[in-house]
Amino acid sequence: MTGRARARARGRPPGQETAVPSVGASSIQQTLLNQPPGFRQPQQPHVPTSLSEEPGGRGRQRGSQRLQISAGFQEMSLADRGGRRRDFHDIGVNTRQAMEHVQESKTGSSGVMIKLTTNYFRLMSRPQWALYQYHVSYNPEMEARRLRSALLFQHEELIGKTHAFDGSILFLPKNLGNKVTEVFSRTRNGEDVKITITLTNELPPTSPTCLQFYNIIFRRLLKMLNLQQIGRNYYNPSDPISIPKHRLMVWPGFASSILQYEQSIMLCTDVSYKVLRSETVLDFMCSLYRQVEEQRFRDACAKELIGLIVLTKYNNRTYRVDDIDWDASPQCTFTKADGSEITFVDYYKRQYNQEITDLKQPVLISQSKRRRGTLVQVPVVLIPELCFLTGLTEKMRSDFNMMKDLSSHTRLPPDQRQREIGRLIDYIRKDDNVQKELRDWGLSFDSNLLSFPGRVIQGEKILQSGRVFDYNPQLADWSKEMRGAPLICAKPLENWLLLYTRRNYELANALLQNLFKVTPSMGIRMNKATMIEVEDRTESYLRVLQQSITPDTNIAVCLLSSSRKDKYDAIKKYLCTDCPVPSQCVLARTLSKPQAVMTVATKIALQMNCKMGGELWTVEIPLKQVMVVGIDCYHDTLSGKHSIGGFVANLNQTMTRWFSRCVVQGRGQEIVDGLKACLQTALRDWFKWNKYLPSRVIVYRDGVGDGQLHTLVNYEVPQFLDCLKSVGKDYNPKLTVIVVKKRVNTRFFAQSGGSLKNPPPGTVVDVEVTRPEWYDFYIVSQAVRSGCVAPTHYNVIYDTSGLKPDHLQRLTYKLCHMYYNWSGVIRVPAPCQYAHKLAFLVGQSIHREPNLLLSDRLYYL
Amino acid sequence: MDGTFQEEGSARIVKFRPPLYKQRYQFIKDLVEKYKPKKVADLGCADCSLLWMLKFCSCIEVLSGVDICASVMKEKMYKLAPLPGDYLQPSERSLTITLHHGSVAHKDPCMLGFDLVTCIELIEHLEQSELKKFPEVVFGFMAPSIVVISTPNSEFNPLLPVETSFRHPDHKFEWNRAQFQNWALEAARCYDYSVEFTGVGQPPRGMEKVGFCTQIGVFVRKYPLSEAIQPEKATKAAYKTVFKAVYPSLKEEKYLQNAVVTEVIFSAQSIMQRLPGHRLMAGHEDNGDPTETKPKFQPSMNRFSEDLGKGAVARSLEPFVNGNAVSIPLSTLFSFPKVRRLCCSFERFCKLISGKVTLSSDGSAAIFYTDCEDEEN
User: What is the superkingdom listed in this entry's lineage (chain B) (predicted)?
Assistant: First the structure.
């Protein structure tokens, strides 16, 4: 169960993967709650393009020799060059300055104070510290960088031992005194060279260039500590956790970055775990071969391997498997850059002394992402025997025992996590070389984690028809409290279908009987279902649905015997597009435990009710005439062909009914065009329902990657404004756009007595660890049973609402109570989660926009 | 391997393919393949490219680099660090890579006991005074079995598009073949080495008389080295270590034990899965129609028999199940080829797994526990 939700949220799993997508109980149990960070797949690092059909791992070596020399500096100067690399921290997007009402203060005040500790350390510099940036030129011109370096550092007494030099830009921790310094050096064969060192910049500690510089220096330090870089994070290979049963190796490590936060520059560091596997892709294929029937072998390989990240044996590079070429083998040849042909076997033998023993294995294909110059993308060929698997396969994720084994190592309770985080600072303090480097630059880290007060805003009252109740704020769950209470709006089950296979007749009956037991107290009127036996084939289900669905059908329930995705997809596709009727798939296995059937039936009844347009509960929303929009994206990583944007917006004041549409975006299209159309329809439907237009529109935008903020601010927000303007001349609603981010490295710990605990749901942080140039805040809305709770980051990038930060924070927290598939508080506002569910369903199963007749119901739950 | 050249138009521009530096490296690699040295040092290692190539040679256990310029070494030294793969599958051999900052005109005891010392395009960068001390340091003090010295052949220069007198501004001299050979023969004579001359970078057809572009002398020590280091050689350290990487190796108890335990537990899992009454692996519940054509891919047979040595498992000592405990005789586990290969002897095998795997009361079998199969999904 664990880990999968995240993978999905990020749209990672390959299209044909099974693993019970939203079938029956799995979606009932679907929790969005805390995922240990160890299960994160790293964002696919940029794979260097290989020039011609060359095997993995060579491209960079030759091609970018020159670039690599100053790789560090390249990153540094990216702001000027328009970004060859993405700026993962969205530095330089200054949105707060445009929002008048938060100029003075962006902090709220409601709630109870709580003492928090976080995973941030202050970076400290000497008083009056500055970084001096020089430009260095040579006369006569010297080409070789090595020579330029050597000539410059003949003057070490002037420059000092501490420097960073890329051949033309020189950074020093001290001022040379003059704006222009000229020195003379002599090459070893007697040539005199004039070197002109010109001060171009005196950078204060907070300048963006300095921030990038700190990160470069920090990466240097991590390397000095012998930590291995994989993706964006650094891991400690000498102390692995080995889980031999599953051939897994878990490396502890750190995700870290240095940024300017509210009051100071800080290092944010979190524990990260890298799951590596001590088996090669070939080993994996062989054991798979023993497990599946031969005719299904290739399919099984594709299912398990495509989309996985592999790590090559011979260099430290990761690739994503995009395809398996069964017709090729290591004996195939490729053309080297010099035009000669060589087999993979010979190449690896010669280049890396790697013996390929299995000459009949297929090869893996990885489509490199980065384009160099005008060269067309050429796939990289990888040899299974020389690739290690990393991360987890879908099958492993669905293996409960394995995930349990794994999480016992990676899911750390707060105090333990804090200890692990502190280890990085310990490493830094104990290593002499690292200390020296820091001292030389005049920098140091605070030894204590940052502590400051946060606020816990009060819990919400849950309103059900005529009933009001509180929930236990520690658990943030009200499934018990809800039991036996009538729903706000119960849709009758008068005319509905129940499809089952012969084998599952008993289970179908059990489901029906239990639904009869649980529905009356909810207020759902229920007739006996039209029970139809089908053969366990996709066509059979579809034929029966075609024949039996009438205009009066409320819902079609399909009891599925296995988690075969194709069947599920076909049913969903048919019932969401051609024949728009709400549908509920239930996996037979979920009903197999007699003692649990009643609970399962309760959840299914609630889910079905939502899908038919029913309403379960609400919270008090004081803000009137407000339309809340949720947007999330699904990226089809497998075919890479399209992305899906899910869009939902409330239709009523109580936020119990939601309009939805989605954008299926083809390659090269911007998702924003489609979103504009969605917003237009949403406003039209709102008007139909309410007979007036909303005076406020609040957009919660999820699915924004690191480094994409700029695009959002400059393209998406103007489009929303445009769209609102186009509605009518006098229509001028207030717009708020909030970027929602679940994947953050920030963690909060609540100090209670001598130990650290998870902060309670409702904890809001809008000081210290937020960014001065943004109107942003963190909310911990959910509760977790184990491990550390992850806060959600909210960044208000546009706001003409004039609402106080307090009100926006409260509203956001309220919306986290409104997700009907979970009777508790979730990590994100409900519209985001609905948008996610919609985009996921469409991206995984339907592949085109669902029928708009369903658009006022939560059919995608 | 040999270089080819192109003549473009009337201007004679010699281009080597593969590039000359690669030819020089390949020459060293071939030499390593031939003599299988265990300890190799590269003097004037610069950006460590040669060392990086040599780290893949499986015979080498100690690899050292020396350079006068620390910053050049430091720039790319991390590429000599072990890779994640080296940790995931520790190699049989041990490998230690060290980089020293220092001059080839100075003696340091850390350079003693090497089998091969390479000086690729080094001597022409030495000042007269350094060059004078060089033979004593390399041949007299270090006294490795083999020394390889390469340097430009100035007779080839007219064929190169170089306008200055030397190929590189930092070159102090460039010798013709006679000059180099005289120097080399003198050094060999003096320190009891034999020397043979060769080179890389073939001259263009018709110009063979100029010789190789890079001339190479391969020196082989003629006398056996006494094991004990002569006391007068125990000089004080002159070099500063700037980098050291110890590769994970199965020679180290920690890694060997981990590898054995991992293999034992994994093998035990596969035995347990095949035991009667054990739940079948996932993937069989589906009854989809087999539409796929037969795959051509057949994992090689040797891998199969190796991994699950059905034949090798002694029939008389069958694993047995007792509740959720499965007892597997140690001899069965030891019969797995990978385990056997790692441990060599049964005694060693028992020692390695002790404390890491639960044993039966008489110590003849390992006990594994099956998980409760209750899937909460």
Answer: Eukaryota
